[in-house]
Design a protein that fits this description.
The chain has 14 helices and 10 strands. By secondary structure, it is of the alpha+beta class. The chain has 2 domains: 209 residues, no CATH class; 139 residues, no CATH class.
C-alpha cells in the first residue's frame, strides 16, 4: 500500500511539470496521436477497461484527451433508458493530466501507444474529433458490444489513415460471452446477470473487428498492426509506454459473506425439493408458496421479455432462457386460487415440466451457453411442476372406488 501511495505522489509531481517539459523538448508545430488504454477498475462499469485518444501539439501547448466514455447517472430516467438500450454517451474533451490523475487515483494502469501517423493523417483525425465533439454531434447511442469507447476510437483512427490497416487476426478466438466472462470473473453476480440478459447471439464465434469492443483487445491489435501504402509498409505503433503502473489493491476485510449465484441456486433447489417431498407425503397444498414462487419467476420473466422484445439491445434476442423464465408464470400464480382454472393449472404444469426437462437434457446442445447457476433455478421450477402433477395423481387414485 505504501508503494502505491508513493507512486501516486510521484505521478502528481510529474503531472504538474509535464506540460513545461513537453513544450521544451518537442521542436516545431508537430501533432502526435496516441491510443490510451486504461486497465479495469473495481466498479461494474469499469470491469472492461477504457480507451481514449490523446492529441499533443506542444507548440500550442495542446495536450488533451478525447473520451467517448462520458455518461451521467443524473440523466432523467437513467435506469429505464439503460434497461431499454437507450443510453446516450458523448464525446468529451479534457486535459490529459486530469484524465491520467483520475485513473491513477482509482489504481488503474494506463498505457500509451504512440501512433506513427503522417502529419496529414494526424491533422485530419484532429479536425474530425473536434467536429465530432461539437454539441450537435457529440452524443451517440451507446451499445456495450458494438458501439462503445473502444469501437469509436478504433473507427475514428482507421477512417483517417491513408492506406490499408493490416491486423494480425490469427489470434482471435472465442465468443462475445467468453470474452465478457474474462472481464467479469471478479463479480460472479454480474456474470450471472449478463448471462441471463444476453441471448444466443453472443455465443457465435466472434470476428476480429467485433473483438475490438474490449479496450485490451484493441491495444493488442494496434501493437501488431501495420499501415500499408503504395510505396511502404510501416508499423502503426511507434512506441508503447506505461504511464501508470498499478498494483493489485490489498483486499479489505469483508464485513459480510456474499454467496455465489451457484451456491444460492442449489440451496434454493434443495429447499424446494424437500418442501415438495413433504407436500407429497403429508398432502400439503402450499398454494401460498407456489403463488410467491411463480410470481417471482414471472417477475424475472417479465424483465427478461422486456429485454427481448421491447429494448433496443441487439444481443438480447433470441434468448433460450425465455423458455423457462417468462411472464406466463403469473398465470399459474393466480390460477391456483380459482376452482374454475384447475384444468389450466394442470396443463400448465405438464407443459412447464416438459419444457424445463427438455432444456436440462439439451443443456449442451442448444446454441446458447447457460450459466451453471441456471440449473438450480430450473430444477426448482421443474420440481414444483412435478410435485403438482404427482399430488394431483395421488388424489385421483384415492378417489377411485376400491382404493
Amino acid at each position: 500500500m505504501r508503494k502505491i501511495i508513493y507512486s501516486k505522489i510521484f505521478l502528481l509531481c510529474w503531472l504538474v511539470f509535464s506540460s513545461v517539459k513537453v513544450s521544451a523538448d518537442a521542436p516545431g508545430d508537430t501533432l502526435t496521436v496516441s491510443l490510451i488504454t486504461c486497465s479495469p477498475g473495481t466498479e461494474a462499469y469499469e470491469l472492461f477497461g477504457h480507451t481514449a485518444i490523446r492529441i499533443e501539439r506542444p507548440a500550442k501547448k495542446i495536450d488533451i484527451i478525447y473520451n467517448y466514455g462520458i455518461f451521467s447517472f443524473d440523466t432523467p430516467h437513467f435506469i429505464y433508458r439503460f434497461t431499454k438500450g437507450e443510453t446516450d454517451y458523448w464525446l468529451g474533451i479534457e486535459r490529459f493530466r486530469d484524465f491520467l490523475f483520475s485513473y491513477a487515483m482509482r489504481n488503474s494502469s494506463v498505457y500509451q501507444q504512440s501512433l506513427d501517423l503522417t502529419q496529414a493523417e494526424a491533422n485530419a483525425l484532429f479536425h474530425a474529433l473536434n467536429e465530432n465533439s461539437l454539441p450537435e454531434n457529440r452524443e451517440y447511442r451507446y451499445n456495450f458490444l458494438f458501439d462503445n469507447c473502444s469501437t469509436r476510437a478504433a473507427e475514428m483512427i482507421q477512417r483517417h489513415i491513408r492506406g490499408e490497416l493490416l491486423y494480425d487476426s490469427t489470434s482471435v478466438q472465442g465468443t462475445f460471452r467468453s470474452l465478457i466472462h474474462e472481464c467479469t470473473q471478479p463479480d460472479p453476480w454480474l456474470t450471472f446477470g449478463i448471462d441471463l440478459a444476453l441471448g444466443s447471439r453472443i455465443d457465435k464465434p466472434i470476428t476480429f473487428q467485433e473483438s475490438l469492443f474490449l479496450p485490451d483487445n484493441l491495444m493488442k491489435a494496434f501493437a501488431s498492426a501495420r499501415i500499408q501504402t503504395d510505396t511502404v509498409t510501416r508499423k502503426l505503433v511507434s512506441r508503447t509506454d506505461t504511464l501508470v503502473s498499478s498494483e493489485p489493491a490489498e483486499p479489505e476485510p469483508s464485513t459480510c459473506y456474499i454467496p455465489s449465484p451457484l451456491f444460492v441456486s442449489w440451496i434454493w433447489a434443495v429447499c424446494v425439493i424437500f418442501l415438495s417431498v413433504f407436500q407429497y407425503l403429508r398432502g400439503w397444498r402450499l398454494r401460498w408458496f407456489d403463488t410467491l414462487l411463480f410470481s417471482f419467476y414471472g417477475l424475472l420473466g417479465s424483465l427478461l421479455f422486456f429485454l427481448m422484445f421491447v429494448s433496443e439491445h441487439p444481443a438480447t434476442y433470441p434468448n433460450y432462457s425465455g423458455f423457462w423464465l417468462h411472464p406466463f408464470h403469473w398465470v399459474v400464480a393466480i390460477a391456483i386460487w380459482l376452482k374454475s382454472a384447475k384444468k389450466i393449472v394442470r396443463y400448465y404444469h405438464f407443459i412447464n415440466f416438459a419444457v424445463v426437462m427438455a432444456l436440462l437434457l439439451l443443456w449442451n446442445v442448444i446454441p446458447q451457453q447457460f450459466n451453471a447457476a441456471f440449473a438450480g433455478w430450473m430444477v426448482a421450477l421443474l420440481v414444483r411442476s412435478a410435485s403438482h402433477i404427482a399430488v394431483e395423481q395421488k388424489s385421483r387414485l384415492k378417489k377411485r372406488p376400491g382404493i
